[in-house]
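Format notes (please read before filing issues)

Several people have asked whether sequences and structure tokens are stored in separate files. They are not. Every record keeps both together, in the order shown below: the sequence lines, then the token lines. Line labels are part of the format and must not be stripped during preprocessing.
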Amino acid sequence: MESESIVYGCIRDWPSESPAESRLRREINRQVLDELPAGDAWSFLGREMFACCEQPGDGLYQTQVIHFGASYRTVEYEWSLWIKQFEALLKRLYWASAVVHLETELNGTHTFRWESDSGSHSPQEGELRVRCAWEREGGLRG
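Then the structure lines:
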């Protein structure tokens, strides 16, 4: 059996003084996620792997949290392509920070973090300017 990789994490929006502004950002983020390929059509990122709470009081206090997860066959060998697709998605969303955990059977766990230079990213900003750091835990599992 081939090695399995698990990828999971979350994308966080920022709180706003304006409920209307927050609602609009949530709606736009939901539209972007709904445009992702579904079923067998996706290679690395697909609609089914993302979820978020839609309404205040239903798991949403002030900040929208988009959570995601999927399992892959040895995705670490194509990790640069996964990151490229993920960053293309981030360019289209409203967010303040994102974290991705990559768990591999042979190479341990890696954590990747994106933070917007200004504390928030809007799709209108075009170029993605982030600080990305990665951390590594563990090694070969016995």
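For reference, the curators noted about this record: Residues 10 and 67 are 4 Å apart (CA to CA). The chain has a mean pLDDT of 84.
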